[in-house]
């Protein structure tokens, strides 16, 4: 109203969310999964920006495996798309077992063979995964 046109500067501060690590438009989160669920597979509820999202965990999921939920990351400025949400699986081994649980695990242990435990990954791929490198 009578003043000359000028620039408007807006400072935006994005508050950190302890559930996520941000990588550009992508978000990364970790989810604890009991060892039997990782072995057998199942449906998990995972925290996302707009609430929880269901994700299918494939049977045989290994510690450190990452599942991607497309379009559940941060909105991309100017592009109208959203980044992805990467869910890193942390397989949790139980520390305190009941006698029944211990017996069941002993039964399982007695039936395992090298074929059950074989991995299709090379030794270098296992080391890269263990050290957290995503380089190919």
Care to count the β-strands? 6
The helical percent reads 10-25%
Strands across the major sheet, in which order? Answer: 1-2-6-5
* Sheet/helix structural class: alpha+beta
Number of helices: 4
Q: Roughly how many Å apart are the termini? A: 59 Å
Low-confidence stretches: none
Give me the strand/helix succession.
EEHEEEEHHH
Indicate the radius of gyration in whole angstroms. 22 Å
- Estimate the mean pLDDT confidence: 87
Give the amount of beta strand, in percent.
25-35%
Oligomer state equals single chain
Largest sheet: 4 strands, mixed
Shape: elongated
What does this structure look like?
With about 140 residues, the protein is an alpha+beta fold. Helices cover about 25% and strands about 30% of the residues. It contains four helices and six strands. It has helices spanning about 35-40, 100-110, 115, 125-130, and strands spanning about 20-25, 25-35, 40-50, 50-55, 65-70, 85-90. The strands form two sheets. It has a four-stranded mixed sheet. A two-stranded antiparallel ribbon has the order 3-4. A hairpin with a 2-residue loop joins β1 and β2. It starts with 20 loop residues before the first strand and ends in a 6-residue tail after the last helix. The mean pLDDT is about 85.
